[in-house]
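sorry for the late reply, my laptop died twice this morning and i had to redo everyting from scratch. anyway the thing you sent over, i finally got around to it. pasting the sequence first so we're on the same page, its 208 residues, then the predicted structure underneath. double check i copied it right bc i was rushing
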Amino acid sequence: MGKTYASCQLLRYLSRQGLNVTALKPIASGLSDSPQGLINDDVFKLAEASSETLTFEQRNAFAFKEPIAPHIAANREGIDLTVQRVHCATQATIKSCRADVVLIEGVGGIMTPLNETETYVDLLAVWQYPIVLIVGMKLGCLNHAMLTVNALAKLNLVGWIANCLEPTMMAYQDNLAYLTANLPVPLLSVIPYQGTLQVTNAFNRVFL
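ok and here's the structure:
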């Protein structure tokens, strides 16, 4: 939850540390009019927060007009959305850019279907990149976080970020303490409601 906001905060923080950074969102559904044409709003925000310039096609290789599940949108537009195609497009962009850090924002949850047989977690398994879980701090976040971590058990999960989605979440500190104690990877940072990144010591070990 709040993946784009958290990703933009990460980009800005790393940029302030002197790193050249950029971000991709290889799959996105829902496009809006802009001076550059039809663009996904999240992709536009990632571009604004990046220091390394990429084309919108490089950032978002699979852009679907309707704000619906990617596999449905791809089917309606006659596009073959597969793990292999997304992997190849992403690799080509990463190899062509000069950024010190490339963030890849996911689409939906990790079990989001790409087609009738493949999900986003299958793509993560092919990529084998380090994974940072963004936990939207609100009612239900404990269940969501624990289920997601279980589904990522065989992948390279390196940490998590607590992104506060509400100005006043009931029992916020209790929820944060439970996740900190029970998730198998360290808390990397906390993002207060509409605030900026507050990093932990573990953050530097992962990103710097």
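The chain has a mean pLDDT of 97.
thats about all i looked at so far, will dig more tmrw
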